[in-house]
Known about the structure:
Arylsulfatase, C-terminal domain; alpha/beta; single chain; 10 helices
Amino acid sequence: MPGSSVIAGKSREISIPSKPNVVFIMADDMGWGDVETYNPESLIPTPNINRLAREGISFLDAHSGGALCSPTRYGIMTGRFYWRTHKKHSLVMPYDPPAIPPERLTWGRLMHECGYATGYIGKWHLGLWYPSKKLKGFQRQYTMNENEIDFDKAIVGGPCDLGFDYFFGTAGCSTSDAPYCFIRNNHWVGTPSVPTPAEMNKLPGVYPGLMAPDWDQEKVDMNLTEEAVGFIGNHMRTSPEKPFFLYFALSAPHIPWINPEFVRGASKEGPRGDMNALVDWCVGRIRKALEAHDILNETILIFTSDNGPRKGANGHKSAGSFRGYKNSTYEGGHRIPFIVRWPGVVEADSRSEIPICLNDMMATFAELLNYKLPDNAAEDSFNIMPAILAESTTSLQRPALITDTGSHVSELGNFSIRHDKWKLIEINPKPSDKPKKLKYELYDMEKDPYETENLADVHTQKVEEMKHLLSICKKRGLRFVGELHAQPSTNRTQ
Length: 494
């Protein structure tokens, strides 16, 4: 067909459109074990996500680049690890300045430069510049003091300054970080002018601050979903000939677990499970919007989560049988659902055990769109298009799989690195430890995927080899370590 190419893959011919629409949906703290297609014993109904899995490919060994919100989002947006930034804290806190400078190549800018209309809906959590009321002449001043912020002036440093044509969302965690107010492009929708009430401040994880007078905690994800649906509809009305890229970052199921009435009791897990049912509803709404405009089968639809979950209730295994939860270098902290629906290209109802990382989005879509990444961008992104296509002729030789907590909490580990069957966890010393030195745990992931037997004292040479590999990846960037492996080209578009 015009504007496409045909390749052979896994005993079938694949016709790849040159510029398909792309919708990337990401839940917040949804675990590997929350989705029924990954965990048949899940206490949470996820029919819409299950349907995506039946129609596409599910990756069973997918990971976030970090086990927390901001590090993962930075990795997706830039293709590099968060610890390469100037930031000293693992999270972008309320009113923090941007973690991404305007000159850095982002996934949004890459897609925009390739001719896509680009939209970002949802939780940002990568920092903004907030204008101060204390202005000196024409010089723009910024502040991290909530009382000094001029909410009538434009904010800077968000999605619209990093490659996106349109933004609607929140500065941080939508339901737990001040200010509690939506942003449209570079301006507030209303004014954060009302202090959060005492009953809201008591909720788990809530950061007290200012909110818009009409702020409704229960309807945040519903509002975000309708904006995402609206973005699709507006694009099809105004520029149907142009491909679009929609990055949709949900707030659910992040704490506090405050559900709209229509999903209360939807799961057998409790409020957290109901929030996951809300995620599934949101996925269903996006699908219906694509169907309504007759573009569902012309769209790459990806569903995933930003990191591992919090512990489930009522016996629900939110991380499946994997060890650890959110903010842990054990598998449960960063192993996530990752599903790709791409009719005619991705084989329906297929599964892959190839390890992938969310940082890989930059290199993968650069490959799809024939975009040459500069050496100073996406250093830790790896092309996983062969894995998505399930190509039998290409062996995806990933040099390593790295994740970190960013929090430097000794009990949870700092870095983890996997290579072949081995996984090494680097653990910072506790304040009480003497002498203060790094500790290491080593696991054989083929024999022990649930990390029950630490083999660091048995395979001391392997520990040293893995430490050396981690050092190389930190210095060179994962993408350049990957160049040491011979790989057939997977450039397929014309």
